[in-house]
Write a structure and sequence with these properties.
two-stranded antiparallel ribbon, 6 helices, transmembrane helix, transmembrane, membrane
Length: about 180
């Protein structure tokens, strides 16, 4: 009887250690593991922007003249575009497109539309891009449309690079201005 008791204890111990080891290994290597950082997860690596945007502030592209786009309140188009690009990086970039708050995106779209009222644009291609931004913002203001949200992010991404002359060449080619 003693032999079978010890055999069962050893067998249960080995089983418990094996099961624990399995779960530890799975937690370490599982793509959705909470033990991995956000940037290690494959869904993050395949986000809407494909790679993280590490902008070098050195200007290699010729920045657009400040007078080309001016908002009614006097804000430069450069600042407007850069601020919205930052917003979309934080709220949609690196895998957050499908999980972002629609209410937050709706508020942003309405704010973009307010900012674009009576905007002064001195370039026809940029004017086309601003109209496309307004069209996508109207869609997001009316309904939860993830494609329109992604388009807004891409417009602001590309225009930010072109307007501010960042040392970064990965664009989506979505804009009329220097894009298509």
């Amino acid at each position: 009887m003693k032999f079978w008791t010890w055999t069962m204890i050893i067998l249960l111990s080995v089983t418990a250690i094996s099961v624990s080891s399995f779960f530890v290994m799975q937690a370490l290597f599982d793509k959705k593991s909470p033990l991995q950082t956000e940037n290690e997860r494959s869904v993050v690596k395949q986000a809407s922007t494909e790679t993280e945007e590490n902008f070098d502030t050195k200007q290699v592209n010729t920045p657009v003249d400040e007078e080309v786009v001016v908002l009614t309140n006097g804000t430069s188009g450069h600042t407007f575009i850069s601020n919205w690009h930052d917003f979309y990086n934080e709220s949609l970039g690196w895998g957050r497109l499908e999980t972002t708050s629609y209410e937050k995106q709706k508020e942003a779209a309405i704010s973009i539309l307010d900012g674009l009222k009576d905007i002064k644009v001195a370039d026809e291609q940029i004017a086309d891009d601003i109209n496309d931004i307004a069209t996508n913002a109207k869609v997001v203001a009316e309904k939860d449309d993830r494609v329109a949200m992604r388009n807004l992010h891409r417009y602001f991404h590309d225009l930010d690079i072109y307007f501010n002359g960042y040392n970064y060449d990965q664009t989506f080619g979505i804009t009329e201005f220097r894009g298509n």
